[in-house]
Amino acid sequence: MNGAGNLMDFLDEPFPDVGTYEDFHTIDWLREKSRDTDRHRKITSKSKESIWELIKSLLDAWSGWVVMLLIGLLSGTLAGVIDLAVDWMTDLKEGVCLSAFWYSHEQCCWTSNETTFDDRDKCPQWQKWAELMTGHAEGGGAYVLNYFLYVLWALLFSFLAVSLVRVFAPYACGSGIPEIKTILSGFIIRGYLGKWTLLIKTVTLVLAVSSGLSLGKEGPLVHVACCCGNLFCSLFSKYSKNEGKRREVLSAAAAAGVSVAFGAPIGGVLFSLEEVSYYFPLKTLWRSFFAALVAAFTLRSINPFGNSRLVLFYVEYHTPWYMAELVPFILLGVFGGLWGTLFIRANIAWCRRRKTTQLGKYPVLEVIAVTGITAVLAYPNPYTRRSTSELISELFNDCGALESSQLCDYINNPNMSRPVDDIPDRPAGPGVYNALWQLALALVFKIVITIFTFGMKIPSGLFIPSMAVGAIAGRIVGIAVEQMAYHHHDWIIFKNWCRPGADCVTPGLYAMVGAAACLGGVTRMTVSLVVIMFELTGGLEYIVPLMAAAVTSKWVADAFGKEGIYESHIQLNGYPYLDVRDEFTHRTLATDVMRPRRNDPTLAVLTQDSTTVEDVETLIKDTDYNGFPVVVSRESERLIGFVQRRDLTLAIKNARQKQDGVVSSSVVYFTEDAPQLPASNPQPLKLRRILNLSPFTVTDHTPMETVVDIFRKLGLRQCLVTRIRLKKLKFTSLCVCVQASPGHHHQEGRPASHGSDDEPGSRVHHVQLERRVLPPDGVNRYRPSPPSS
Predict the structure, then answer these.
(1) Contact 651, 11 (CB under 8 A)
(2) Which of UniProt's keywords are assigned here (predicted)?
(3) Between these two residues, 452 and 768, which has the higher pLDDT value?
(4) What whole-number distance in Å separates Cα of residue 307 and Cα of residue 531?
(5) What is the CATH number of domain 68-302?
(6) How far, in Å, CA of 45 to CA of 59, rounded?
(7) Where does CATH 1.10.3080.10 sit in the chain?
(8) Please, which residues have CB within 8 angstroms of residue 540's CB and are 6 or more apart in sequence?
(9) For 631-687, what is each residue's pLDDT tens digit?
(10) Cβ within 8 Å of residue 271, ≥6 positions away
(11) Which DSSP string do the residues of 402-434 spell out, in sequence order?
């Protein structure tokens, strides 16, 4: 049967672009799967003919693993370079290394022989800008000069970032994860994963993070890794000519991106499976694991953190957690859920205002303004002045005997003779209380400024800012619980597990749990979040508190809305994404949403042997449907198949160029054999090969819940709805249009009738899921989806 399997055998000779898709359109997963099955069948049959064909078949089989290897190597290398560049440029805002200007502050003092343990952050080779310019390191004048240069560097970095994005690669802005999710669901956005986007996103990501804005590099690294995957797909026709296979590679690339972002290869695979992928077969799971492994190995070889570890925030806690601590852990989960809800609603409101007002016309000015406000407010507070990653690392750390942080300024007992790793709870000193005030101010600052930062026209991730909010809140709660346990150890809640002189509470653990709770509240991740967190910190034995906080934050956040931040941005941008987690609540049938109705234009169809080239071209010109049903005749509208608009346009254009005698009056045939015509008639045009003879069909009494489920799970581009009456074979056609925006599937009305209601016969109706979108530039290139063929 000449069905979807022969869709590539167009006309007598195949020609370019047939079977491809236009920009801002949705792929047909069934067609892509069928094409790949045909390709594999041909390779298998040819492999038996000669040794060379056998070798080619083996190379084809191994091409997927080669692509995964290349993705892992390139994404790991880029992540390592980005980490090193961010460390250097972040420190460049405060000073410079005299012995080697390309060294960061930490690297500069590593190489110094004059660094003492107590002043390990100070060395003669590293000088702040005021000391370098005026010779004075202390004093009001030096502080003001350092302050001014800090703001100036931040403005310079952000201006370069937004200018490069605006001029060279507009798609390099933002996190990229909402668009990656949409692309993996089958949508086409040309250029979003291109070479220029990869280059500009890598460079501007370094500049944006170094500017001190409240954003992270982890989300954009997923976009960078997917750009790498798309780049290597172009080297193999197996992936470059099949959009479905390409998306399998991109799913694995997303796993590699999270692997290098957090040093969490297993968490990366689960993140791709849980959060971004739409179609994730078992084969993709294996390849994702391999890509994440190679990427993590490459990053470890570069060793950008300088600690010979893969993880970003490695911690070592020497105290187990106790059951009573689940109460504050769950409270942190509640805080994370509330913070996630607040952030999503406020950020979406601000982004919608940006789209609908004059603000959106001045992206450079917006970035400069937010950067200036951030730098001016962040510099006086040491916890907001440093990079967000350093802040989280300090908040996660346990206070040992050798820690010099303000957070570890406890009053020590001079008679204490405990091992270094077993320091009992102690009363907080003035440094701790001072740090608490600074952290409280930092918490308010991070909550507010992140709302306005995420979504600007620069690369901006959300993982690290969300974790920072949770880590600050968690550390404050942890210190409060620790001091309560110390001063009130005779309370009933502490009596059973916290004896005087014991090391009971670890404030760093509370910071880690709070970070997981806030990240879960914003993204709605659960399983992958917990795995990422324990891989990120090495705290495997604290998996139960992490799970409790992640589940609580999700429950609380879901009570106010099911969509996470990425799904909310997908809806805001109008991307056609059918989320498998959405529930269809309307009790309607396929017949309830059919068009055209009584006063609508008739259904646009093609006949199998009576339509001329001019008729087809007129139909294409006057309509914007993605395809047309092909019927036997206007009188007997029995369905023959379905033809895509793009394939039809390309076939006629190619025939006019290469086939002699094809004119406007030539008859187009979709039949197996064209009839013999008189010599005086123009040359007919046979287009049987571009006709899909096996389109997916359902009956008119199919519940719309089932129809939507079919589109989600099979990835259909269109579905035909038929009504058959057995008394007499008479057929009519009606059209059904189902919009792809969740919650808007219900359209009132009954189908327009062709003939009297009691007239026996068969009726064929058409359902098409039109996935339409506003492009990122905000220009509405499409009208609302019309009654579609």
Answers:
(1) yes
(2) Antiport, ATP-binding, CBS domain, Chloride, Endosome, Ion transport, Membrane, Nucleotide-binding, Repeat, Transmembrane, Transmembrane helix, Transport
(3) 452
(4) 21
(5) 1.10.3080.10
(6) 15
(7) 68-302, 330-370+432-566
(8) 534
(9) 888 887 788 899 988 888 888 888 888 777 788 888 888 888 777 777 777 888 888
(10) 254, 255, 258, 525, 528, 532
(11) T--SGGG-B---TT----TT-PPP--B-HHHHH
Q: Is 731 helix (H, G, I), strand (E, B) or coil?
A: strand
- pLDDT, one tens digit per residue, over 399-410 is 765 566 788 887
**CATH code 3.10.580.20 region(s) in the chain:** 590-733
Q: Note whether 524 and 351 are within 8 A (CB).
A: no
As a CATH number, domain 590-733 is 3.10.580.20
Q: Which two tokens stand for residue 765?
A: 């109706």
Token pair listed for 494: 């502490």
Single-letter residue type at 288: S
Residue 246: name the closest of 227, 270, 220 by CA.
227
Condensed to tens digits (0 to 9), the pLDDT of residues 196-229 reads: 999 999 999 999 999 999 999 989 999 999 999 9
Reduced to 3 states (helix: H, G, I; strand: E, B; else coil), residue 662 is coil
Q: What single-letter amino acid sits at 145?
A: L
Q: For 299-314, what is the HEC assignment?
A: HHHHCCCCCCCCCCCC
- Closest-CA residue to 714 (of 115, 85, 245, 185): 185
What are phi and psi for residue 127, nearest 5 degrees?
A: -130, 140
Choice between 102 and 522, residue whose per-residue pLDDT is larger: 522
Say if residue 355 is exposed, middle or buried (CB neighbours under 10 Å; 0-12, 13-18, 19+). Answer: middle
330-370+432-566, superfamily in CATH? Clc chloride channel (1.10.3080.10)
Query: How far is 197 from 482, CA to CA, in rounded Å?
Result: 48
Q: Which two tokens stand for residue 562?
A: 């099911």
- Look at residues 649, 544, 570 and name the one whose alpha carbon lies nearest to residue 606: 649
Give percent of the chain with pLDDT exceeding 70: 83
Residue where the block lists tokens 């049967």: 1
Say which amino acid occupies 44: T
Are 221 and 617 contacting, i.e. CB atoms less than 8 angstroms apart?
no
Pick from 169, 297, 180, 200: nearest CA to 250: 180
Go through the chain and tell me how many residues it has: 789
Q: Is 243 exposed, middle or buried (0-12, 13-18, 19+ CB in 10 A)?
A: buried
- The residues, any chain, with a CB within 8 Å of residue 30's CB and separated by 6 or more, are 4, 696, 714, 715, 716
Helical H segments across 565-675, by residue range: 565-573, 613-622, 645-658
| Dihedral sign, Cα of residue 166, residue 172, residue 178, residue 181 | positive
> Looking at residues 112-137, what average pLDDT do you find?
74
Residue type present at position 573 = N
Q: Residue 543 corresponds to which tokens in the numbers above?
A: 């998996």
Average pLDDT, the chain: 82
pLDDT band at 780 (very low <50, low <70, confident <90, very high): very low
Structure tokens at 598: 């009584």
DSSP 3-state assignment of 572? helix
